[in-house]
Amino acid sequence: PPIIHREDYRPPDWLVPDIALDFRLDPGKTLVSARLKVVRNGDHAEPLRLDGEGLKLIEVKRDGVALESGVWRLEDDRLVVPIDADEAEISTLVEIEPEKNSQLMGLYASGGILCTQCEAQGFRRITFFPDRPDVLSRYSVLMEADQASYPVLLANGDCIESGEGVEGRHWARWEDPWPKPCYLFALVAGDLAANRDSFVTMSGKTVDLAIWVREADIPKTGHAMAALKDSMAWDERVYGREYDLSQFNIVAVSDFNFGAMENKSLNIFNSRYILADAETATDMDFDAIAGVVAHEYFHNWSGNRVTCRDWFQLSLKEGFTVFRDQSFSADQGSAAVARIGDVRTLRAAQFPEDAGPLAHPVRPESYIEISNFYTATVYNKGAELIRMMHTILGEEGFRKGSDLYFERHDGEAATCEAFVQAMEDATGADLAQFRLWYAQSGTPKVTAKLAHDAGAARAVLTLEQTMPPTPGQSEKQPMAIPLKTALLGKESGTPLARERLVMLTEARQDVVFDDVAETPILSINRNFTAPVVMDAEKDPATLAFLSAHDDDPFARYEAMQQLMVETIIDAVSGRAADHAPVIEAVRKTLADADLDKAFVAEAVLLPSESFVGDQMLIVDPEAIHQAREALRRDLGSRLEADWRAAYAASSGNAFEYSPAAKALRRLRTVALGYIAASGADDAAKLAFGQFESADNMTDRQGALGVLANGGAPERVAALDIFYNRYRDEALVLDKWFTVQAFATRDDTAAAVEELAQHPDFTIENPNRLRALVGAFGANQRAFHLASGRGYAFLADYILKADAINPQTAARLLPPLGRWRRFDEGRGTMMRAELERILAAPGLSKDVYEQASKSLA
Ligand code: B3K
Ligand code: ZN
């Protein structure tokens, strides 16, 4: 398959200022007629080329006259039409089959609803069009459908007319006044009910809001609606951005390839990011819903009003919008806990990607299939880049930059470069070296050494940075790395030198701190200002000290994590692991009454097995599991009384969705987990009690998770009760699959194989596929079972899924690509599975790209 290169970007030959679409909707056979006003762009003699994929072409007209085939031609999948004049009207009529669309790209059917997904290149599966983000058009959309099956007809913009037709059909015409690229086009037809509300914007305009779901789900839409209104107010307050239409619609569907989609004024969501109530959704689900609702809403400016010139610029909208949704979420509760969550996600998903065969820059140089580049690097590392600019320029400078960016590029398809340029022009800052963050892949490693001269009352911090080689990039230049740094007194624990922003720009650099009389301890990369791996060579005593005294909560969390990781790695590497410092640090944190409980619950959690694995050259999944479990057991039994006290103190409250109540629930299940780890006789009974008496899903799922890891008879009972209670709640049933796929039991791989045969398992629904197969791939020990059965299982399901939905299949593949990091035996088996995948007939280019790059 062809490789697309960023360098090859050329402006479009033809522009399409206006498009009129006419849909005769039917799940079996939908007719789409499109009338495009096309205008020659620049001085050239190229014909008009329109992208198309899987379309049955019925007719082509030029300026109202039907053209003989022969005048137009199909080149691969493209429709080529010669045009002499500088302007013309080109019309096409095509037939598509929504019901047979299992890829969930283009127009498809989900549970009786007809809906669309166009980003990145789904619009070409609906009609012939220049399917690229730098062609912006005004849309007029006529939709016509059977009224009984599809009483609600929605598209972008405003509904300007509607009416009844013949034979029980009806129609609606929607017009969107804002020019947009075709990836933001959307329509929905279905039997839907609305939760309606309204929002008054800062200039006093009323916006009608509606969240459309199946009638029965209306009671689960309140949280999403509240989040939508909060997001609208937040974007006005923090970025000065107002909504620009009189309607904003959200639709939830159950079959969706990813989280949600920011189509102009008609966001379409995976139902898991809309539907929530205390009975069926955990606190994490509630938080994720608010985050995704905000994310999609924020795209109205960062993505829609200013869009991307080409798909290599994807992080322009995604990195910026993730940063915006992270900032929004941080404002909803504890900012420190939100930051811990952001960094955990980055380390779990992006660092491994950056260290493996699929590493790519935030602004990639090439791709085979763009769908494969909706990655943690483009999204989450991209957000870290924006955050670093925010840190460097300060709140006010950053806001000046974003104002200038929006003003300068409103209505345009822009580049990452344009964003950085606006930040520079608005503030006078020099971001020349900073731009390397967009171009160089791989995670920088920074080492820090602090020397103290007591006589001269001076401390010297020596920083060194290195960048590992990554695919296609063997040589790297030093990066501009912003590190918030402070010195704390070794005896007093108080700050000796005020926090300052150190800019590391050289390969090696000294930073001098004066007036430092007391022996200092280094606190660096506070609040994780830079997405780097930091090695400050701290001994356990220093880490323990920082975990109790650092005045930056993130740094405190970080010190604890590092202490835990090092303790586990000592055991894995056969050194005597001393659990005492970890136990003492955890005890202190639990006992510290001044700390936010939400913070405590995160700080006392052990790092995941995969995170420990990521720190090792060669991962030994079994040894990591044993070492981590041994530490868990010790923490559980040595601090059993403390866990029981924490458990009791956080119990007995009726459900409420507030930061304080969430914190107690989190701590409660964390404590339960440690009580179970201690081996206490009553642990399973305690867990089962929590499971049965819970008035909310957080407590119930938390207890189920604890039971699912163990061997008590309560385990089977709870799983059965859970299944029977929620068998008709698809999103909760997903949790039932996931909890078993994540289990730390010896037989997890076998259990997963069996669950794949369960009547409720299906690979056609992406949520269900990810709930079992995706979750299993993230369970390091179970997936990497020495027999290799985990690898074979995953490869089987990638191949099965690829025949139905290549985009979702390709997303399951990365765990197999990590073969270089495992022993010879495992590595060989992993490679063999990748080769088996590559040899399969009819492989999609999505999976081909991921598998071939993973072997290279
Ligand atoms: N922009 C969409 C993602 C589209 C993914 C296409 N493979 C959702 C989001 O990031 O908001
Ligand atoms: Zn996005």
Defining key terms:
856 residues; alpha+beta; Neutral Protease, domain 2; 5-stranded mixed beta sheet; 31 strands; binds (3S)-3,7-diaminoheptanoic acid; binds zinc ion; EC 3.4.11.2; PepN_Ig-like_sf; metalloprotease
Structural summary, described in words:
Residues 224-434 form the Peptidase M1 membrane alanine aminopeptidase domain. It is an enzyme of class 3 (hydrolase). Keywords: Aminopeptidase, Hydrolase, Metal-binding, Metalloprotease, Protease, Zinc. It holds the Pfam family Peptidase_M1. With 856 residues, the protein is of the alpha+beta class. Among the domains are: 307-436, Neutral Protease, domain 2 (Orthogonal Bundle), CATH 1.10.390; 742-856. Helix content is 40%, strand content 22%. It contains 26 helices and 31 strands. An eight-stranded mixed β-sheet has the order 6-5-9-3-2-12-15-14, with no helix packed on it. α8 runs parallel beside α10 (580-591), α14 (640-649) runs antiparallel to α15 (659-677) and α16 (683-693) packs parallel to α18. The mean pLDDT is 98. The protein binds (3S)-3,7-diaminoheptanoic acid (B3K) and zinc ion (ZN).
